């Protein structure tokens, strides 16, 4: 599972695999009504249904070596902060490696997403996993767009992904080496 950062750390965070016991912690994310739309999920479902769908997606990724989100744990408090990871995605019929990130509402605007996304970027390039990384961001998700820019990424195109309008942000290994 070369795409997973299990056991990796940043200054404030520890990366680990998602476990079924995390369900209630992660459920908080889907109580934010905008989140399901940003993930291209059916907005008529309940937070519990969205959370279950999320778990099934991640478990499928783990099982099929398609990357996946790592749980982010605060080193000091032990709190579940959010998730971040490297994900194999197909965008416009091209297989790409994405840095995905989601932070629980009460931990937003504290730099956790940027910290975790930079760790994913550095891990991918330092370990020669890829020469290019993207982040797929719903056109209305300004917070995630800011994280992508903080991660050295630039907007390269707009497209449709999972029936929703998205911006594709990208960084190449050569750009990263100059940061």
What would you note in describing this structure?
The protein has 179 residues and is of the alpha+beta class. The protein has one domain: Gcn5-related N-acetyltransferase (GNAT) (Aminopeptidase), CATH 3.40.630. The protein is 32% helix and 33% strand. The protein has helices at 23-30, 35-38, 47-63, 112-126, 142-150, 173-176, and strands at 13-17, 67-74, 80-91, 94-103, 132-138, 154-161, 164-172. It has a 4-stranded antiparallel sheet with strand order 1-2-3-4, sandwiched between helices. A hairpin with a 2-residue loop joins strand 6 and strand 7. Helix 1 crosses helix 3 and helix 4 (112-126) crosses helix 5 (142-150). The longest helix is centred in the first third of the chain and has 17 residues, at 47-63. 34% of the residues are buried. The model has no long low-confidence stretch (mean pLDDT 96).
Per the principal axes of the C-alpha atoms, what is the gross shape? Answer: globular
The level-1 CATH class: Alpha Beta
**Backbone structural class:** alpha+beta
CATH topology: Aminopeptidase
Determine the CATH superfamily.
Answer: Gcn5-related N-acetyltransferase (GNAT)
Distance between the termini: 27 Å
What's the β-strand tally?
7
Helix content: 25-40%
Count of helices? 6
Number of separate structural domains: 1
Mean of all residue-level pLDDT scores: 96
Architecture, according to CATH? 3-Layer(aba) Sandwich
User: What can be said about the biggest beta sheet?
Assistant: 4 strands, antiparallel
Order of helices and strands: EHHHEEEHEHEEH
In what order do the strands lie side by side in the largest sheet? Answer: 1-2-3-4
Ranges with pLDDT <50 over ≥5 residues? Answer: none
Rounded radius of gyration (Å): 15 Å
Beta percentage is: 25-35%
């Amino acid at each position: 599972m070369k795409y997973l950062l299990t056991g990796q750390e940043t200054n404030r965070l520890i990366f680990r695999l998602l476990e079924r016991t995390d369900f209630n912690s992660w459920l908080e994310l889907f109580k934010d009504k905008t989140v399901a739309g940003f993930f291209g999920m059916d907005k008529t479902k309940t937070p519990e249904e969205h959370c279950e769908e999320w778990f099934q997606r991640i478990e499928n990724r783990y099982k099929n070596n398609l990357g996946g989100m790592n749980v982010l744990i605060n080193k000091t408090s032990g709190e579940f902060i959010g998730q971040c990871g490297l994900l194999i995605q197909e965008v416009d019929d091209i297989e790409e490696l994405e840095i995905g990130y989601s932070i629980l509402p009460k931990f937003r605007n504290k730099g956790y997403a940027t910290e975790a996304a930079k760790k994913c970027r550095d891990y991918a390039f330092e370990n020669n996993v890829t020469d290019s990384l993207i982040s797929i961001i719903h056109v209305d998700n300004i917070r995630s767009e800011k994280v992508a820019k903080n991660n050295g990424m630039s907007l390269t195109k707009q497209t449709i992904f999972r029936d929703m309008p998205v911006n594709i942000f990208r960084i190449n290994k050569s750009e990263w080496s100059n940061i």
